[in-house]
Amino acid sequence: MTEEFKLDIRNISKTYGNGVRALDEVSLTINKGMFGLLGPNGAGKSTLMRSIATLQAVDKGTMALGEIDVLKDHDSIRRILGYLPQDFGVYANVSAHNLLSHFATLKGITDRRQRNETVDRLLHKTNLWNVRKKKLGSFSGGMKQRFGVAQALIGDPRLIIVDEPTAGLDPEERNRFLNLLSEIGENVIVILSTHIVEDVSEVCNSMAIISEGRVLRTGSPAETIAELEGKIWKMAVERGDLPALRDKFRIVGERLSAGKTYIHVYSDQSPGDEFEQSSADLRDVYFTTLRQVN
Ligand code: ADP
Fold it and tell me: Which residue's CA is minimally distant from atom 25 of ligand 1?
């Protein structure tokens, strides 16, 4: 694997038949490691993920993964792509081992011994070895997601796409899942699409914020947070006062802490005596970006 191996997305646009412009001149360079694609529902994340995964055509633009033309050479991309689907409900009556073996066959690992080796290795890696004989239908949300990772890793992919993976996971399952992903991200490109800011701040070394089909900001979480340092101010407020305060200040977030409501305001200088300076975090970055206040 060379250092230059990267996904280069240039001026991708997509308008659906109903007139919704889901992607509008999207350009991104994605290197090895964990990349977070962060945006609210409807931002265009799934459309972009499906386009990269060759499941859907775009209207305009180019995409290259290393030397491969993603939009033309579907076979080559599919050989090195791992895609984590949302739901395995349809396979509820199959054991984890048998289903993984089935997917391995579909991915072209027809040699039985090689297939068994692959399946066993992935069951260990995703911590599912002890439950390999259990049916998928009996799995918790976190176990299903880890099975999804095992399935996505068949054939040693170099690009892994994970679409909205942590919704519905309890904190422990979520932690386990994100740890597993970041372990994988040491060697390949992992794109994690999510609307949950913490997914990105916890595991991504690089990210893009998208909304209404457009890329609004790119960078590492740390860099983008550093740009806001000194410009976020907070004040404890009564909830009933919020509408009036929204008219008066550029509020970029409301937080609850120990039962109190705080507003975060973006401003170069102190917005008033009642405010104190707050350290910035990725939520501040996300909401200043979405509300385009800086
Ligand atoms: P996200 O994954 O960020 O929630 P999507 O890519 O699913 O965003 O959707 C982007 C926009 O495109 C939304 O306005 C959505 O309603 C619209 N959209 C998505 N899929 C289709 C489709 N098949 N036909 C028409 N509109 C669609």
Answer: 16
